[in-house]
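Box 3.1 A note on notation
Throughout this textbook, protein chains are presented in two layers. The first layer is the amino acid sequence; the second is a token string describing backbone geometry. Keep the layers aligned when reading.
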Amino acid sequence: MKVEATPSASELLAQVSDFLRDRLEVIKQRREIEEVSLLSLAGRILAEDIHSSVNLPRFRRAMMDGVAVDYRRLSEGYHSLLSCEDRKTVDLLEMPLVYPVATGSSMPDKMDTVVPREHLVYVPAPAGLDPKFQYIKTPRLETVQQGQHVAQIGEDVAKGRRILSRGRVVRAQDLGLLSACGIAGAKVLQKPRVAVGLTGDEIAKPGHDLDGDQVHDANGPVLTTLLLRDGARLVATEYLADDPDAIQTFLQRNDIDILLLCGGTSVGPRDFAVEILRSIGTVAFHGLPLRPGRPVGIGSTPCASVFLLPGNPIACQFTYDLLVGPLVRGAAGRSVDWPYSRALVHLSEAVASQRGRLDYLRVVRTERRVVAGGFELGRMGPSALNGTTSRTADGPPVLVRPLTSGKASNLTSVSEADGFVLVPIDAERLLPNEPVECYWYDC
């Protein structure tokens, strides 16, 4: 009888990474299309090519403050300067005139060149010339090129031209181009639809009066904020009793891409989530070498990717960041990278760990020097999923104090912490003089 070897912690997390990558492809293939307004397009994935409905610019436009001239009739010397009122009544072909223009204004008919204001000399009416006009003296002709500082119709974008392509993630600066081209909205791929279930007879909604041994929900607000940050469409937040039927009904939703069920993932008498998921779908992983967060479960139903998150608030946030966040961001068309800045740090004291386990160590910054930047990924999510962490950030190390006391399991420690360090799977300890990478909660 062949006995399969148990995968190492690094191999197990690599398998998790592969599973999440596959689930991302499933979500992408199922995404539907919706139409949204211009101001809702940023961060969305275009489901169609977008073509301009106008020429840009729509008219010949001056690109400098100065005067418009007909280059062929320009000569060195004095030229009368028409006001806007004069332009309406004077035939430009009859007089060697120049006309004042501002950046972005339309060019007068018959004029093809702009002479910048700083190249002109304004003078009173010379002797013998009509005193009702203001006059300028033009520069030497060799300093003026025909057509200078004039944008032609459609020079930037011609009507009908494709300006953004299908599959593009719309950026803030794209909205200006779209608006200028007459676009009021577009078809985009649907955001990943997520439902959050919070289990426990003792859990009360935030702000509600408490009865008996009830406690206010601490996980729902955190998960909601992180999901919206990562680009999800939060379809529902449900508070579920410790009742197998209620949990099963939640897990059988067919209008969701990702289901998050918080609590009930361990082995207690009221921890039903894992067996219920196994009965209606697949439990790919249950129990990972994480601290905190070991009871986390990952799987799927015929309709959704499912994450069974621990009820402990610290473990809930960590497992969301490590496992759920990259999937949500990838499905929303964003980078799967963590949205946290990073810095090299030195710990103020040694921290013990255990080989074969990834530790989530919250820290408090004691110096304020921060080096911003991204961090390297493995195949899916942070490189820690493949058993390593990047230590390549540049800059002087920042001193941080680890939260390793008994208080580290309290909710106050979550709020007090400035960031976190991942203790690598192969490390037994981190030393005070050893530079390690820290991820800051404040982006």
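The two ends are 53 Å apart (CA to CA). The chain has a mean pLDDT of 85.
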